[in-house]
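Q&A log
Question type: sequence-to-structure
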Amino acid sequence: MKSLHALLFNALCLAPLHAADIPPHPRLLVTEADWGKLPARMAAQPEIAAVIEVCKARADATLKAPNLTYELKGRRMLSVSREAVKRVLDLSTAWKVTGDRRYLDRCRSEMLSLCAFADWHPSHHLDTAEMQTAIAIGYDWLHADLSAADRRMISDALLEKGLKTTLANKRAVKTRNNWNQVCNGGMVLSAVALLDIEPELALAAIDEARANIPIALKDGYPPDGAYGEGVGYWAYGTLYSILTAEALRTAKLPGAGIAEHPGFLESGAFVALAYGNTGLMFNYGDNGENKRGASAAIAWMSRENRSAAIWGAFGKGFLEMDPKRAEGFLALAAFWIPDPKELKDKDLPLHFVGTGHSPIAMHRTGFGQKDLFLGIKAGKAKVNHGQMDAGSFVLDLMGQRWVSDLGHQEYHSLEKTGMNLFSMKRDSQRWTVFRLNQTSHNTLTYNSQPHDIYGAAKIISSSGPPANETLLDMAAPLGLPEGASAIRSFVIHGDSAVTVTDTVKGLKPGDTIDWHMMTRAEVERSDKGYSLSLGGEKLMLEIASPQERDRSARAADPPPSDFDKENPGFTRINLRLQAGANGECRITAVFKSAD
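Response status: OK
Response body:
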């Protein structure tokens, strides 16, 4: 039997919606009251003023550019949809703040042009979801400034090419990954914008989204907040879940349980921790090695968690934004940036263990730029946006990233060769891509074979100061023989040294283990290993194994295949070990300051 709470909730959702119950436009994410408060908030907080300044600068650039056109890049129109989001938010914000009609006229022209497209490319439904997000926001925010004819054309397109199209795509809205978050988010924003035109259909769409949203939340956010697809995809999926929650709030409709889901709000701290002390992302999976920057999602997370620590990690970035690199949804940060007086003082931990689909461990000696950061990846390759990076790690010290992950390769560059990039089968072409298989990661290879995509590296134990140690069980991803074992140990010594020890037992005589590592540093052979030089600093890598048969330090370019992305400036260090009669291989690598 359903609980009383559930029955009341359903009754509220399904009750007839009267015109008097629908908040007036603008009701989507930002209300008229929010716009009214913005000038005072801009004057009080330089970060908010900086956001508006960047949006206005980008709007000025858009005034000089032609309208967007229907253009596919491979199987996607996503770049057009994302540019539409940026342009509509920037132009409408500039109009609202300055009253300069050039911004309004151009936003109107852009939206009418987008609405005249034959469709919003529903075959790759993220394209449709993001386009309807742009149009829904523009229609709602500029509703009073548009003619009746303009409103009719825009609302018709939003209804037919957006809301109805997504509502009919049961597969896209029921996935377990970021597609669920983005497609349901676009559908909810369209529904809220169209509440006064199609109330029954809008409520049905919102109800459908409420039923689907928990699928992705449960799959993506463990209670500790370590989003399963990594930090870059956190920014994408989480933002659309935030848009959904905020759209329902500003429309005064029942929520979807997003902020209440265990791990959702906690993911804000996870992201703050997952940027190393260099400001570079711990970029496991299909994520690039991006720098920490300003984002609307981080502003919202800081506000909702009332977290001085999260805001402290990102707030400065709002004052140092590059308009060409700032995200498309930046305008929303102006309304979500927290009031410093409402934030609580709470330090982020030096040690963090994340569970879920992609288990990780992170260690720090402090939060200063020169302090040590160690990010360790466990888990397996066969997860959404997974790579063969089990056992891999990144290392920051002395303000430099010494051990790096190359990051993902742009999808279209591989798909245009005919590759089925997102097939996750054992023999998929995906695993022939250098940046995706284990040979480009800071991990191990057994007998020159790719990792077992179903085999998961497990975190045996992980502890913070004073031990500062993490142990991984690597046997499964390496695909070792039955009864064999592989333990990878990470130990931090003091403030400036890390020892990585690999112990593999139960091998057959003659079996090989390769130890590989990627670095941007200049590499010179030394008596005990290698001397690394980067950014005016030096780090010693002392590395040794009784079973060593060969070692090399070679440029990562040219990559193995013509379809592989080049890796300028990277060097790949490799040691090959060969098991003897006792079937063991052991290697110890010590990273320490040259001082």
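Response note: Residues 351-412+429-593 form a domain with the Beta-galactosidase; Chain A, domain 5 fold (CATH 2.70.98.70).
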